[in-house]
What does this fold into?
Amino acid sequence: MLTRLTLPMWAGAAFLFVITSVAEVTSTSPFVTSPVKDVLITTRFPPYYYVGWTLLGLGAVSCLLTLGYPLISKLRLSVVLLLTLLAIATMFVDYKFIYLPLEEMVIPPGKSRPQGFVSLHNASQYINFFDVSLVFLASLLICWPGSVGKLPKIEGQNQP
It folds into this structure.
């Protein structure tokens, strides 16, 4: 249950975060200036990663604890676990090697962008798309209804 809750929760939250962030960055509003965009980068992204790691970590641990559960195939749970762990690792690589260098480039807010900013920003978009796709696929797999398999026998109850 926890895996089925946390993985889609993170996929939806990440998708919503991306939509609102893109809307703000591409905004033509006179209030959303370059220094404001820089502040948004440094204040919004750390919680994005922390919430992502928390939800995916809970999903991975609960998936691991469920591997022996007879109603969901071990293969399906193993694939979901692998996708979730890969998503956690991808987020870590993104944070360490893309986000942190980008963050340094926008502090203090409003300073001119260094040469590598655009390439790192593009890399961030691609790796985040890959990461959210992994979580979306894992969410589909864990939530997709499947064959029930063999129910464990409970003494004293008639079973079909």
